[in-house]
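In the design runs reported in the main text, the only information available to the sequence generator was the tokenized backbone. The following block is the verbatim input for one such run; it is reproduced so that readers can re-run the procedure and compare outputs position by position.
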């Protein structure tokens, strides 16, 4: 039998974000081409001499008639189709000239971020959809004995730092106190249109209608399947390749990967540093937040090596004046 060598295809694609930040542009692939009839993020294959960004500029001009001025890396996705290996570099584009239209006759549509899942995309796109919907910063709340202090610090992070993704982590609270704090936190997060994930048992969602669950790496490794429904977010803490693979197997929507640096809370854990971090992120099947000594100033660098952004306790949890 002939051995088939799979074609390798390198693609640059764009998540174009509307000026109000609430919508993303998608296009329908003509029914005659590969993955025809499905929706996609505009873009196409790199020519042999091109960088990813050059290809992105050319493709968006050809397909949509727009001139891109700047783009930030969003996520890199490997996907095995039956006939080829696709590597997609997806960029977030907010600065462009011209109004996009279907220059090749294809349907083009601005859709709200929370409606993206209503459109059929190619199999490779799931991590991209997650990445488009997630912000670049993930706040992990600090232990706080008293609810009032907790709430005022959370509100400060939501209002002053514009945090939109929050993990409630409160290991020192008993179940009832945790649930009560979670309900208050949820109400506040809703007011700021922020998502709240609970660090703990997936059954907590029966008591508090939060947006999802964040698993510890230990919980993650003990599960055989996704423990929450598809309409909830599932995140997990990971520290190595095996945990990242397990997160992919049970269908985590995103993960944190740590420790990037040593931190006062974990002084004796060996930090992985950017090089190892990048290698692990490269193979991950979902968006990854860098954790461990990160501040917002690290977010651009984190995205440059393929991460979604940064997760932090200290950077968003400051004393109130
Ligand atoms: N542009 C784009 N391609 C995607 C997405 N998801 C996905 O699996 N793909 C796959 C389908 C194709 O095999 C490949 C992209 O090829 P393409 O058909 O857009 O390439 P191109 O614009 O250069 O087209 P052509 O000149 O070869 O006709 O990546 C996506 O969201 N956007
Ligand atoms: Mg194309």
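Verbatim output:
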């Amino acid at each position: 039998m002939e051995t088939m060598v799979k074609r390798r295809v390198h693609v640059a694609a764009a998540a174009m974000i509307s000026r109000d930040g609430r919508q993303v542009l998608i296009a329908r692939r003509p029914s005659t081409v590969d993955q025809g009839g499905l929706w996609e993020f505009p873009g196409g294959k790199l020519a042999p001499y091109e960088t990813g960004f050059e290809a992105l500029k050319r493709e968006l001009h050809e397909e949509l008639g727009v001139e891109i001025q700047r783009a930030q890396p969003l996520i890199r996705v490997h996907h095995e189709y039956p006939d080829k290996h696709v590597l997609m570099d997806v960029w977030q584009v907010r600065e462009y000239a011209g109004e996009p239209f279907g220059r090749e006759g294809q349907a083009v549509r601005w859709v709200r971020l929370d409606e993206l899942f209503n459109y059929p995309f190619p199999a490779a796109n799931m991590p991209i959809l997650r990445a488009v919907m997630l912000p670049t910063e993930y706040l992990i709340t600090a232990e706080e004995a008293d609810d009032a202090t907790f709430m005022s610090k959370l509100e400060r992070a939501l209002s002053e730092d514009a945090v939109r993704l929050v993990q409630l982590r409160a290991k020192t609270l008993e179940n009832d106190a945790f649930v009560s704090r979670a309900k208050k936190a949820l109400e506040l997060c809703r007011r700021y249109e922020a998502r709240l994930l609970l660090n703990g048992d997936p059954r907590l969602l029966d008591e508090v209608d939060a947006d999802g669950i964040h698993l510890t790496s230990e919980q993650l490794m003990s599960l055989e399947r996704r423990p929450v429904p598809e309409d909830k977010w599932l995140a997990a803490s990971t520290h190595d390749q095996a945990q990242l693979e397990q997160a992919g197997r049970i269908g985590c929507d995103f993960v944190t990967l740590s420790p990037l640096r040593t931190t006062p809370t974990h002084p004796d854990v060996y930090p992985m540093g950017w090089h190892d971090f990048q290698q692990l992120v490269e193979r991950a099947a979902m968006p990854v937040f860098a954790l461990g000594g990160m501040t917002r100033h690290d977010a651009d660098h984190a995205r440059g090596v393929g991460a979604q952004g940064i997760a932090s306790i200290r950077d968003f949890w400051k004393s109130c004046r």
